[in-house]
Amino acid sequence: MLRSSWTPGPAADVAGPVLIAVTAFRADAARDLPGIFRSGLALRAAWPRLAGAVGMWLWTAPLKRRCGSVSIWESRQALDRFVAWPEHVAIVRRYRGRGRLTSYTWTACACEPAAIWAEARPLLSRAEA
């Protein structure tokens, strides 16, 4: 598995509880994976401007046709705004029906990126099955 570097968001200095969202997409066809991953990179480029975004990583397992993200949010409302963001919606629609998406969310008492990645990593393995 390959993982991007940590990308902080505008809420990177949040104190207190955070919401973690993990996504894992398994593409039906290998030819779709580069476009899916490029779309993730485009969203990542916008990350520093997304209200309520604390930070994120992209990940990929190209030989398994899998990719996704581990993102940290200030609140459920911030995540919901991102999910409804037109750029995100367009990507979801473009790849709907071309694979299987698994997602998980939970809250943590504080933003501790290393601990959050350690907790998310087994979920990515589980989603790969």
TrEMBL record:
InterPro entries: Dimeric_a/b-barrel
SUPFAM superfamilies: Dimeric alpha+beta barrel
Superkingdom, natural source: Bacteria
The protein's name in its UniProt record: DUF3291 domain-containing protein
Lineage, top ranks: Bacteria, Bacillati, Actinomycetota, Actinomycetes, Streptosporangiales
